[in-house]
From TrEMBL:
Belongs to the short-chain dehydrogenases/reductases (SDR) family. Residues 9-186 form the Ketoreductase domain. It comes from the Bacteria. This is SDR family NAD(P)-dependent oxidoreductase. It comes from Actinomycetospora chibensis. NCBIfam families: PRK07231.1 (NF005559). The keyword Oxidoreductase applies.
């Protein structure tokens, strides 16, 4: 493989078994990184590795980001095995529909455990390793964390927390040479959004609101994640980049990513 922006770098991607996580892993791998993808389902992770770009170095490790001990052990193992960790992409997330009145406490806690606590656990584990190399974290938020949308109270709350946690880490660790940024996709063609995208009425309304008029492709989000992790973004810290086809430029209502 020809040298790329991430040759010699080690990248950990959570939620790497499908969608944005898989596309991000492939993008980093294509540009020379050693990529470790984490997720809860080994079979999905193995398929992403099997489909990796030719010549890419990619490894699958099963771990649940809501389990602090498990994700800490994974990141420490990666640092020990490869000698460094340069970038963490916090992508693992779930979405459960419902208003505050509709949701039961267990479902709300499940969303918060994976979408927020998972970011906290993985970031806490990786910070000492990033400090050693001047690395970065890229969090995958959502336009639903920048403004509310209907019927997704837990997801909105979780992604809103990711937005401000990104800000806090950028402030706390910028002077240590660690950059922390976030991308915020709108509706993206992933497994998680299948139900939304299969609803013709919903999609017609979506296309009417967004200037580009379609969902994002996972690779289009991965492109921005790779930029934020690269030397090209070396003075970018605490940034929130919507990957939304212009949705935020209109008066339209955000949709789940």
């Amino acid at each position: 493989m020809a040298e790329g922006r991430f040759t010699g770098k080690v990248v950990v991607v959570t939620g790497g078994g499908s969608g944005i996580g898989a596309a991000t892993a492939h993008r980093f791998g294509a540009e020379g990184a050693t990529v470790v993808i984490a997720g809860r389902t080994q079979e999905k992770l193995d398929k992403v590795v099997a489909d990796a770009p030719q010549g890419a170095t990619m490894v699958a490790r099963a771990a649940d980001t809501s389990d602090c001990a498990a994700i800490t052990a994974l990141i420490d193992d990666v640092a020990r095995e490869y000698g460094r960790v340069d970038t963490l992409v916090n992508n693992a997330a779930i979405a459960r529909p419902g208003t505050v009145e509709d949701l039961d406490v267990e479902t709300f806690r499940e969303v918060m455990a994976i979408d927020v606590e998972g970011v906290f656990h993985a970031s806490k584990a990786v910070l000492p390793h990033l400090r050693a190399v001047g690395g970065s974290i890229v969090n995958v938020g959502s336009v639903s964390g920048l403004a509310g949308d209907w019927g997704m109270a837990a997801y909105n709350a979780a992604k809103g927390a990711v937005t401000n946690l990104t800000n806090a880490m950028a402030l706390d660790h910028g002077q240590e040479g660690i950059r922390v940024n976030a991308v915020h996709p709108s509706l993206t063609a992933t497994e998680m959004s299948e139900g939304v995208r299969e609803d013709d009425e919903n999609m017609a309304a979506f296309r009417a609101r967004i200037p580009i008029g379609r969902p994002a492709e996972p690779a289009e989000v991965a492109d921005v994640i790779a930029f934020l992790a690269s030397h090209d973004a070396r003075f970018v810290n605490g940034a929130h980049i919507p990957v939304d086809g212009g949705l935020g430029a209109s008066n339209g209502q955000p949709n789940m990513s």
